[in-house]
Amino acid sequence: MELKKRLSVKSTGKILSGDCDQINELYSEDFYTLVCCKTGEIGLTAQTPINLKSGECALFDKGTRAALNTENARAFIIEFDFKTAIKSVNFNRAEKTDDYRRALLSKAENACEDLFGDLSEFKERESRADANELSAQILKNLLELFLSDLFATKSDEQETFDDLFFGKTSAGALAAKTIYEYLIRHATENLSLDKIAEDTFFSPSYVKRVFKKYTDKTVFEVLTEIKIKKAKQFLRNGKSVKETAELLSFCNSAYFAACFKKVTGITPSEFR
Fold first, then answer.
1. pLDDT value for 7
2. Among candidate residues 110, 175, 169, the one with its CA nearest the CA of residue 138
3. Least crowded by CB within 10 Å, which of 3, 29, 49, 116?
4. Range 179-186 average pLDDT
């Protein structure tokens, strides 16, 4: 699921962080709705009944009407939109949020509060006049990471990602997870350390240090491995060596071939 640069949390959307007893129904014709149960239980009835327990969430498609039944529940609820439709998503189903996802949501709540102020009511709101524009971009990036992790069909790279970080919940591990997933989603781009650091909101030195600690590889070693896995897919699908190098932002075909052979032991031409 490609989410980059599609997210927009518009002023006509709605956000709540806190008690949700005030809400009896969720409905939006123009927005997706993400409901995350923080404490208590939330009963939702859309096409089918859904019971969200603490630490679970559900995403509702545009135009979905859901009745709420809550008791002493606290939630984070946000309506948002993407420029194109979200694909490969399990709508109207309870999904668990692990420590990584909860950390992303916690940061998203903080960004929302900076943008919109008090979130105690689920109502239409506009950004504060003095809101930091950076908070809007942070919110977009955090929700991209959250939705990608929660709903995207897992590739070989993501399976490796899950195995590598299974059970690791420290702040450093969460940072390394964020960087690793960023590399997966942006592998076709020409990335620099400064660009990676800027987009993940860490310093370049911290990116280098924490990623090496939790993966035992450098950022660019892992990025190259991810690129080569994607290169194999392109080559199998009939792309030429030159086309594949260009699609993956290698500086030229010769450098791509050298990287490919270093990782696989054979040249791209031999692989084809």
1. 40
2. 110
3. 29
4. 88
Helix 204-215 to helix 193-200 angle (10° resolution) is 90
Query: Any idea which fold 8-119+134-151 has?
Result: Jelly Rolls (2.60.120)
- Chain centroid to CA 60: 17
As a whole number, mean pLDDT of residues 47-60 equals: 84
Domains of the chain, by residue range, sit at 8-119+134-151, 154-272
- Rounded to an integer, the average pLDDT of 121-141 is 68
**Max CA pair span of the chain:** 64
CATH code of the domain occupying 154-272? 1.10.10.60
Share of the chain above pLDDT 70, in %: 76
Q: What is the mean pLDDT of residues 154-165?
A: 55
C-alpha dist (Å) from residue 237 to 11, 198, 232, 245: 43, 34, 9, 14
Spatial separation of the C-alpha atoms in residues 138 and 115, rounded to whole Å: 11
Residue 40: strand, helix, or coil:
strand
CA dist., res. 150 & res. 163, Å (int): 16
**In the chain, what is the straight-line distance between the N-terminal and C-terminal CA atoms, in Å?**
27
Can you give the pTM of this predicted structure? 0.54
Helix spans in the chain (H): 99-116, 133-151, 156-165, 171-185, 193-200, 204-215, 219-236, 241-247, 253-264, 268-271
